[in-house]
Amino acid sequence: MGVLRLLFYFTLLVWPSLQEEEGKCDETCGNVTIPFPFGIKSECYSDPSFRVTCKNGEKPYISRIGMEILGSFTSRDVIVNNPVTYSNCPSKGDNGSGDVDLTDSPFFFSGNNLFGSIGCGHSATVSSNRTDPIGGCLQPRCGDGTEFQGCYATVSENLTSYTAKMIPFTNESNGRNACTSAFMFSVGNFGHFSFPRDINISSTHVPAILEWKTFDPKLKVPLRKSDCAEKCGNIDILYPFGIEDRCYMNDAFRVSCEETIDGSKPFISSINLTLVDVKFSEGRVIINNSITYSNCNNHQDDRKKGVSVNLTNTPFYFSDIFNRFGSVGCGNFATIYHNQTDDPIGGCLQPSCNSNANLSTNDMCITSIPPRLDTFAASLTKKYRSYDGNRSCGSAFVFDMDSLDNDGLLTVPHTKGHVATSLQWGKPLPAPCKLKDGKKTFCNSEGHYCWSWLSRELLCVCSDSDYASAYSVDVCEEPGKCENSKRRYCNMLCLNAPGNYCSLTCPEGYKYSDEEYRCKLIKTNSSPLPGRTRNLIIIIGCSTSIGTIFALLCIWRLFKALERRNDIKLKQKYFKRNGGLLLQQQLSSNEGNVEKIKLFASKELEKATDYYNENRILGRGGQGIVYKGMLTDGSIVAIKRSKLVEKKVLEEMKLEQFINEVIILSQINHRNVVKLLGCCLETNVPLLVYEFIPNGTLSDLIHKPNEEFPLTWEMRLRISTEIANALFYLHSAASVPIYHRDIKSSNILLDDKYRAKVSDFGISRSVAIEQTHVTTRVHGTLGYLDPEYFRSNQYTEKSDVYSFGVVLVELLTGQKPISSSQSEEQRGSLVTFFLHSMKENSLFDILDPQVMNEGPREEVIAVSWLAKRCLNINRNKRPTMKQVAMELERIRTSDETNVLQEQSDDEEDYEIMDDVTDPWGISSCSTMVIIDNI
Q1: pLDDT of residue 499
Q2: Architecture of domain 580-691 in CATH?
Q3: What kind of fold does domain 698-921 have according to CATH?
Q4: Name one GO biological process term (predicted).
């Protein structure tokens, strides 16, 4: 799919839409106008990434990224509603992430944004793609009445994604002041780098600037219809301004023609100022701007500090090229501020009122204004004592230099409240350009000047000599260079956008010449190719690229097919190596009425164990590692991963043990035997899937006592009875007799009700009904091993009885079969020590205190005698597991008198061997021995 998507985008780049039509794309959503390249209808946006969805007819959203548009479109950026990251804010759901990922879109967060944070006592940082922080700030300390003020910092990078993090910096940030938030926001909406008061701790979204990748200069541009009304009163309304729809460039240039006492007057709707004239080629409009007065008795609006209209977020600013700051009067110091709270940015001193007897009331001081001024405040401060009441009246204003008369004077009567001022809506560039042909060029009604769109930002404006400006370049200096000699004076016009004024000195591909005071085209050595050759190259390049992409797609598909084939072959190889054929052979022979075994997929078990995470390990044994897992249906299971060894002989033996365990467990159906759910043979090591037994092993319950859940005598007797019943089932009741061969407390699992479950059948053997023993290499665990089995290599059902007897002794004494932590007299075999205590009538000296305190004396003695019988050196004198199970049931159900009476009649002589659990001391054994430690 990724390659197909790449092919789709490549096709869009090769064949971009070049149609320029008068489509009906004057779209709005709520009070937001949607300009190109954005659009709601399919024919109105340049690319699917710029499609806008109008939800409920009120809020526009960029469909690709799901962010709400707030407006303020320019040719480079747009203001959107950006989500806030907050922490520890109960009113908003405690914690919330405002991270936005724009990676798969053409948009990115502008470097003109700021990173801000509200709260106190926290350090706020912002990171790109979860790497090291790229910016941050420290909130004010708590307790100074600044709990919900904030901090901000610049972020110079353009970000496609970011992560905000807030960390307590002081102890005071806990408790009621713990709520804090962080966000990326547009400072342009809130004044000049002052912290936005419109944002508070309850804000969930803030305005932010998004930019997008550079467009093809051939993209569609707004078109103007031909029958536009161009007059209001005696004022010509020239493009980009207009009164009717599709007569103005955008809403910022819409003009309303209103009736006043002086007749019809045009007003620029977006700033509510009277339009006086339009200088198209210079990119400016002349309006009537207010004047600040001081000490003028005949002026009702006497202001010492007047504030101009605010042009922020509009494409207009007070022109520093054509305007000056002036002040009329005497004895005053006139100053201009960016706003009322800033320091002065300019000013001039009026002459003294008594310095010249012939001083005119229109004499003035003049100074320049800073570039790109979008608002200002003027102030007059008296510096000299006035001797004439009329002369003490002063005024200050920003005015257009064309308003001066030939003597350099500006007549501003005390009764006049406005002065002509130039607003720049575009920046004239002294660069030569050429008008386009046909419908792509527009002219004013008299034909004095025409213009063509070069891009979304640049116009080419050509005028006759009467309308040429100081920025115009004669493009017909050389004979025969241009056909239309009437409009030979051309220049480029770079358009402003709200909050993003044009800063170009020369357009791309041009360089400013200090000698000629204009932009000159940068010459290159390459000459343009003929149209047919260029088209042929494009066709060949496109065909080659598409062919290459299709070839790569075919190679990729072939690679994936080979990868799947190799994966299947590898799984088949593992299936054979892990005994799949042996398992199939055993199942097909149907020995013991084997039930059908479920085969799990390797991917399902990998997902169930989180790829065999170490944290999922339940235990480790001689035959493998057991993991806890969750299947796709939500059931919890135990997954046993068999061990592999390096030697081939032992590896085959482990494999045989694994298949043996599968076959044996498939024959067993008993509540006290762990249930096998299935297996997996597709992996490097074979896997068994069991039911999950939650409460660990009997060994842990005995040797790691829990005060909150003690192992009572009743539990010990019940668990031993359940183990005996399970072994009796294996020896006698199963379809084929099964010898476990590794009975020990760590192989007894406990379910949620602490019922015993016999597990780990890795070295178990099934035997024919008429067989009494199996001859095999010695396997087992030190301390549980039958001495006669060790001597003879013959394992019988009585060998399981011996191991069960050791488990009974563990339950009685609470001690391990072999332990180096025991006392000197107890060190060695627990069996030897137990039999010796029975012989010396000191049984109660070695019993677990819990057994002594809770167990009835007669029952304890009866179980001890039963354990002694199970541990008889002579296997023929040991009871069967059937007899053991019946004896334990009798002990549990009989009264104390019958227990003692019946037990006393069963006493036999026992031989005590000190080396019964030291098989390495028996020199007669020459067979291979595999013994696990406890």
Answers
A1: 62
A2: 2-Layer Sandwich (3.30)
A3: Transferase(Phosphotransferase); domain 1 (1.10.510)
A4: cell surface receptor signaling pathway
23 has pLDDT over 50: no
C-alpha to C-alpha distance for 609 and 535, rounded to whole angstroms: 59
Residue 215: per-residue pLDDT = 46
**CATH code for the structural domain at 281-424:** 2.60.120
For the chain, how are helix, strand and coil distributed in percent, rounded to 5? 25, 30, 45
DSSP codes joined into one string, 630-691? E-TTS-EEEEEEE---SSHHHHHHHHHHHHHHHHHHHH---TTBPPEEEEE-SSSS-EEEEE
The DSSP letter of residue 407 is T
Burial of 167-205, coded b for 16+ CB within 10 Å and e otherwise, reads ebebebbeeebbbbbbbbbbbbbbeeeebbeebebebeb
How many alpha carbons lie under 13 Å from residue 850 in its C-beta half-sphere?
21
Alpha carbon separation from 486 to 221, 439, 747 (Å, rounded): 26, 19, 105
**CB neighbour class for 474 (10 Å; exposed up to 12, middle 13-18, buried from 19):** middle
Residues annotated as catalytic are 742
The letter for the amino acid at 760 is D
**Per-residue confidence (pLDDT) for residue 216, from 0 to 100:** 44
Tokens, residue 494 = 């770079």
Element spanning 549, H or E: helix 531-577
**Which residues are 795's β-sheet partners?**
774
Banded pLDDT at 529 (limits 50, 70, 90): low
Residue located via tokens 């859940």: 709
Q: What are phi and psi of 877, to 5 degrees?
A: -90, 0
What is the rounded CA–CA span in Å between residue 722 and residue 712?
15
pTM, to two decimals: 0.43
Q: Which residue do the tokens 């025409």 mark?
A: 450
Tell me if 374 sits within 8 A of 310, measured CB to CB: yes
Q: Where are the beta strands (DSSP E) in 388-517?
A: 394-400, 418-424, 426-429, 441-443, 449-453, 458-463, 473-474, 489-495, 510-513
Question: What pLDDT is stored for residue 297 in this prediction?
Answer: 66
φ, ψ at 169 (rounded to 5°): -105, -25
Whether omega for the bond prior to residue 432 falls within 30 degrees of 0, making it cis, is no
Per-residue pLDDT at 255: 92
Residue-wise pLDDT for 298-327, tens only, equals: 555 555 457 788 888 888 999 998 999 988
CB of 742 closer than 8 Å to CB of 801: no
